[in-house]
Each structure stands twice: as structure tokens, then as C-alpha cells.
Amino acid sequence: MTTPHAVRDALARTIIGQPEVVDGLVMGLLADGHVLLEGMPGVAKTLACRSLAAAVGGIFKRVQFTPDLLPSDIVGTRIFDQRSGEFVTVRGPLFANGRGARPSGPTRSRCRARSRCSRR
Known about the structure:
Blueprint: H1 4-14, H2 19-30, E1 34-39, H3 45-55, E2 60-65, H4 71-75, E3 76-81, E4 86-91, E5 98-103, H5 107-110, E6 113-118
């Protein structure tokens, strides 16, 4: 079992100079809630979510929002495995402990990058 102090220490070793972000991520984890990280590109939003997932033994996945995004890109799908001759389920980013979402195309330059960390 990972303690909140151990998670905070692990995040603080990775995310330097942003104690509010580290504390907010730990509080969101303790509250079993969601955390929306907003900021300019390059301020370690994705790194923070990846680090949180790693600190609690979870999984982080990212979604690239493109004009041709389908529900199966987020939820996952079933595919046929030719080796085994069976259908297998491939889970999408929705089933990860942490998720990152990023706009694509012309909207990217007009809006701030966002990452969403949530605990399942």
C-alpha cells in the first residue's frame, strides 16, 4: 500500500518547482476525484500524470483528439487474433488510471494544452 506521503515524495522528485501541482494531484487522489491540469506547452502536465500513475502502480494513456476520432479510440475494441483464432479485447485509454487529452490541428495553437489525471 502506497502512503500519501510516499506518493507526494515521488512526485516532488519528478516535478521540480511546482509544489501546488504536486499537492493538487495528491489531494485529487485522496478525494478519489479528477484533476484538470492546464498550462502552456512544456510545463510537465503529461510528466505529472505519468508520475502519478507510476507512483500508485497505475497506467497512464493519452488520447490525441483528431477530426476522425472514433468512440473505439477511447473505449477500445475487440479484434480478431489470427494466432489464437479468437477475438480479444483491447482496452482504450478510458480504462487507464490516468488520461491525457490533447487537441489536434488548428485548434491546438488557439487553446491551451490540457491533461486530465483521474483515478479509477
